[in-house]
Amino acid sequence: MANIINEPSRTFGEYLLLPSLTTKDCVVENVDLKTPICRFKKGEKPQLTLNIPFSSAIMQSVSDNNMAIALAKNGGISFIYCSQSIESEAEMVRKVKKYKAGFVISDSNLTPENTLQDVLELKERTGHSTMAITEDGSSDGKLLGIVTGRDYRITRDPLDKKVKEFMTPAEKLIVGKEGITLSEANDIIWENKLNALPIVDENFNLVYTVFRKDYSEDKDNPRSLLDDQKRYVVGAGINSRDYKERVPALVEAGADVLCIDSSEGFSEWQADTIKWIKSKYDDTVKVGAGNVVEKEGFKYLADAGADFIKIGIGGGSICITREQKGIGRGQASAVLDVAKARDEYFEQTGIYVPICSDGGIVLDYHITLALSMGADFVMLGRYFAGFDESPTAKIKYGNGYVKEYWGEGSNRARNWARYDLGGKAGLQFEEGVDSYVPYAGKLDDGLGSTLHKIKSTMCNCGAKTIKELQQNVRLTVVSSTSLTEGGAHDVILKNQ
Ligand code: RVP
User: Fold this and answer.
1) Do 295 and 268 share a structural domain?
2) Distance 133 CA to ligand 1 centre (A)
3) Are the CB atoms for 15 and 333 separated by under 8 Å?
4) What ranges in 134-235 are assigned the alpha helix state H?
5) What is the per-residue pLDDT across 216-251, written as a single tens digit (0 to 9) for each?
6) Is residue 355 in a domain?
């Protein structure tokens, strides 16, 4: 007979936090949002912690190398999307690990055989007028020259003119040697009145470019999430199909933690993937798994050796899995249930397996709710997609701007491996949509404001850490009438 859970499947909007005593030391400046991301034994310190409990979704429209750098700078982690070739995902990871403030890895590169037409098209696409000319057109090939807007005249030069005829060739370039500091690079830029200084290795391969305008970036954010070599920490998505090839490439590129990306993680495919990774690399390679929405799924993946477990099916803003397949669970109920399983597992085994609430965050306070319900960290797609740093186009829309945001289960993403559960490849029906989200400006600003709200709510609840919040929190279920009471009501709003 069917096993029916009579408790309704609830979502974040159905709960509110009740305040507790705020002691005088409980102020925003004293709130610490550090949180574990990988399993650890009782009494031991977790090997990997986040400085803020945020991760960005494993999605084409959210997490590339630029998002990863911006988020790690703020103390969180991105998981680079895996619905791309192994080489290009590994290259994104490498770019994050190579990143140094002020040192740009060029994404505008051509070869001497390209034409003025190619230069103009690249400029149109990237907005960059300085281009590195390398032997093979790659970002780390042998440097043969540079092209800037001053090297050609659109009105006079034929479009098929070869780059080698108008570039500034390598022998006339002033370059910096790899290992140079930003302030030394800037001295060279100023002394020689340059706009850009290519940095090369001993074989004259391009490593970075330093631009005149970037000098002010040379300051560290104290929250930055860094590895022991002071490089930004970055995660990478994998799937349970090509992991035997993808994982070694990502590990080699420097990924700090991996995560199996699937809409439904309670599967033998995931257990096989985790076990393969753990047997090949002992415990040196960390891997998260998911998604699950209840105890059994959690226990299965924890036993298989997952370092963290993601929660959420069908709650993502672009996700239509519940409509298409009738499977899933309200995100709040899922988090509460899995958090209980995590705590029981800890009591029974002495192993703490962090959990991540993935998807369905609409308002900032939903993050505080997810944490208070037991999540160690959250994963967000829509939230990050709106920032400048996401990989998608910013488009004029009415009086403002929007950014594109599409699901990994949409036709656009073509992410077959996420949905086919190891069966015959190919997406038979869509589980996601292609959409816009309101443009949200710079990540630093938006995230800064969200963090302030979370910390301030935690102070209202008398909590200075996420653990204290989880231990002391009191939550109340709201009625639909009290929801109306919670917004502006019974007044005529100005400016509308
Ligand atoms: P949201 O933050 O609500 O936009 O949700 C993001 C999450 O939605 C992702 O981390 C992922 O778990 C899920 N997702 C991604 N693509 C799709 C889909 O196409 N159905 N769902």
Assistant:
1) yes
2) 39
3) no
4) 163-166, 182-191
5) 554 568 899 999 988 999 999 999 999 999 999 999
6) yes
The last residue of a domain, from among 202, 218, 234: 218
Q: Quick one: 87 and 207 in the same domain? A: no
Of ligand 1's listed atoms, the one at least distance from the Cα of 410 is 19
Secondary element (H or E) of residue 456: helix 443-460
418 is a catalytic site residue:
yes
At 105 the pLDDT is 83
Q: Which of 26, 38, 259, 319 is catalytic?
A: 319
Q: What is the pLDDT of residue 426?
A: 56
| Greatest mean pLDDT range, 28-37, 128-137, 147-156, 487-496 | 28-37
Is 38 one of the annotated binding-site residues?
no
Ligand 1 center to 58 CA (angstroms): 8
Substitution candidate for ligand 1 out of 71, 292, 319, 416 with most atoms within 8 A of CB: 319
- Is 295 inside a domain boundary? yes
Q: Is the same domain home to 318 and 393?
A: yes
The CATH number that applies at residue 200 is 3.10.580.10
Give rounded-to-5 percent helix, strand, coil for the chain: 35, 20, 45
| Cα 320 to ligand 1 centroid, rounded to whole Å | 9
Look at residue 185 in the predicted model and tell me its pLDDT.
Answer: 92
Q: Is the CB of 57 under 6 A from ligand 1?
A: yes
pTM beyond 0.90: the answer is no
Catalytic residue among 39, 382, 418, 461: 418
In a domain, 495, yes or no: no
Find residue 351's DSSP bridge partners.
41
**What DSSP line would sit under 44-102, residue for residue?**
SPPS-EESSSEEE-S-TTT-SHHHHHHHHHTT-EEEE--SS-HHHHHHHHHHHHH-BTT
Same domain, 282 and 420: yes
